[in-house]
């Protein structure tokens, strides 16, 4: 066994930033601070600002206080406090999937899990246990030390727990399925304040709901899952000039119709701003990115990729053998916090007419405020039933479509309006569903499309069982969505 456990001994003593500020709400925050090993941070403190500000800074978060947990006992104390004093509970680690509050009728307590940084690998069973504050790059690097890979997403900067509870679409996912299909256990503090372990045989209904239900039932403090016996892959990203968009997108559409499961790919129409982090060949112009990952013989992967790599001149990037922990290089997603607006939809097919329609609204000749409009090939292992049933739905979708734009004045209205127009334009080929991790929202109508009716109804019932007073902010939209569907 190899164990990586951070030393937070400097935080052993309870600490609260100016307790008197919290008294304005009538909350005895000093009592809470006395029973946690971490921190209780209030508005006006640096700790509060850092913890309450999500990665997506377009989401405004103003909790009454933040509990920066050092262990699962701190989370239990925070949930008990919220139940005693009638508070909502918001949960955050990185804040990539932060949601606007649906219910503002009562104050909110934010539980921040960023210090739960346990990483334990068992190389014999090829399993890993990680705390809720761990990010995927940390997992990838730790797994690489044993010659393993991990089913991380396109951005290894995101938190492990938020990604896994939402499904998990990896750049190599067509070979292995949804990332949370590999989850074997959760430690979670449910909304009633109980610390529970959820596996396929222990609290099995909770285990089902946590894999796909995001944070609707409680605060996950740790998760255990299987690693991959894959030390390296073949892949990367090819960037083409926007002038070649029609040729490239149509070729990609035809190419993806018959790709084997060893291949995973996505295509993105990009309008990256001119800034230091953006390579000059891609800055301030429309380009097309074709991402590719191959699990297996690199020579065979190179042969399969020839069908797309020679379609037009490549202006940047390339394909090569990559160590698995360099998975993030394929998409090269941004790391720095920013205000983003995302909308996603699943497609049942992608005929030539759909490509032409998409290019008309998001291609190089269109007035498109989106930074990224992405198509991702699904199918393969994504379409197979998991070993253990879960709340992940819509496994029969063929592609996902995602728009990402800047959610800041003066363009936020144009970004949101155009995103809606893109989704409407592809409606003839739409599957009708979406995924929790792509286009995160607290809008009940959007949440309702993330699940089939039976799954949504069961999720709502389980939130009522494990969170009877509806403390968890993430459960509010689930319950509202279930009511919307039933009506």
Give the topology, please.
Elements: E1 2-4, E2 15-16, H1 19-22, H2 29-33, E3 39-41, H3 46-52, E4 65-68, H4 72-84, E5 88-92, E6 108-112, E7 119-122, E8 127-131, H5 136-144, H6 160-165, H7 173-176, E9 183-190, E10 195-198, H8 204-210, E11 218-226, E12 232-241, H9 245-256, E13 263-272, E14 285-294, H10 298-309, E15 314-323, E16 340-347, H11 352-362, E17 370-377, E18 399-406, H12 412-425, H13 444-448, H14 453-466, H15 473-486
Parallel strand pairs: 2-3, 4-6, 5-6
Antiparallel strand pairs: 1-7, 3-4, 7-8, 8-11, 9-10, 9-11, 12-14, 12-15, 13-14, 13-17, 16-18, 17-18
Helix pairs in contact: 9-11, 11-12, 14-15
Outline of the structure:
The protein has 15 helices and 18 strands.
Shape: globular
Number of helices: 15
The oligomeric status of these chains comes to single chain
What is the percentage of strand-forming residues? Answer: 15-25%
Structural class: alpha+beta
- Residue-averaged pLDDT, rounded? 93
Report Rg.
22 Å
User: Widest sheet: strand order?
Assistant: 15-12-14-13-17-18-16
Through-space gap between termini: 52 Å
Question: What ranges have pLDDT less than 50 throughout 5 or more consecutive residues?
Answer: 1-24
Helix content: 25-40%
* Total strand segments: 18
Main sheet record: 7 strands, antiparallel
